[in-house]
Amino acid sequence: MPTENSHIKILASAPAARIIARELNRRRFLGFAAAAGGAAFLAACSSPESTLSNGLESQLSMYSWGDYDAPEVLTAFTKDLGPKLTVDSFGSNEEMISKLVGTKGTSGYDIVVPTGPYIPQMVENNLLMKLDHRQIPNLKYMDPAFLGRDWDPTNAYSICKAWGTTGFVYDKTVITRDLFTWNDFFDAAMNEASGSVSILDDPGEITGMFYWANGIDWNTTKKEDIDAAEDFLVNKLAPHVAAFNSYPGSDAVPQDLQALIQIWNGDARLGISESDDPDKWVWRLGAPTTELWMDNWSIAEGAPHPKAAHAFINYVLEPANSLAELDYIGYHTGAIDIEQKAKDEGLEMLDMVFFTPDQIATMKDAEVNEAQERTVDIWNKMKAAAGA
Question: Which CATH number fits domain 4-163+293-364: 3.60.110.10, 3.10.100.10, 3.40.190.10, 3.90.226.10?
């Protein structure tokens, strides 16, 4: 098994880890945000709040991916520092952005968790607050390989929360043959798993499967590639899909709701660990290629509780809390020497958290580019065709 440093070297040097999201103009950015579902969201009503003795606000609101933090860390934060924490969840970056765009700095959210390539456009459109690193001294515990990414070279607006990848799990009592690739996934979806298929409720993940399976650049802007993806996904795959679910590890896997499930690696680890029969589930890293994503701690522009937000980010970067986060969510948190610490603590299923150099070489970063509106359109059409 490679050392943590070998993983870091691959991530730091691979071309896939060095993308700069293409600039979108304001109209295009707002357009794809609206296409993702509009801004049907009422900002939290402001009310006078007390300031705690430590100078923090008494409340904190977070908008993040679902089931994405160790409950004991969230509880300990309130116990140790005082602010009462509330958490809402989204299923895609587009959904999160649409709410922030629609509320124009009055969403009531403090902490948000965008994926890296979306950050430049969020900054350009005044959706994120600049971080005060003086309030985040635990930044020293982050490995430099996971800082200074091209979407935010000075970490002015974001700090790595976790990075991971995409694959699938299947119930081997239903699908009795071996599956390895995205084409295997599609074949099983349209045959023995038909009507029992779940895919991620995320535009890039949906189109990504088709591109990864067919050797097409995930960030293609060619009309013929996008048309081919739409035809296959909407007309051929959609009729077999039962659910669009960004959090299948929380329900679909442990409750046996579907037999074939597109899933992020950490969520797969969570779902299998909570299953009554974990041995029947098989995890596969998407092949021949898949994605490498990094989610980030950020603070929303207009955050009503900025001091508490900085304090929370600082709190989760504490080494013990970072390890607890990794154990719960199943994703690498970017902390220094965390792979060795996880091994020393005897954490389980670490092959679903840490990857070999050969595996990492198959993972590609996303771009937010001029194909984004078509990508969102395909997502919506596929859901309509599936009756979801």
Answer: 3.40.190.10
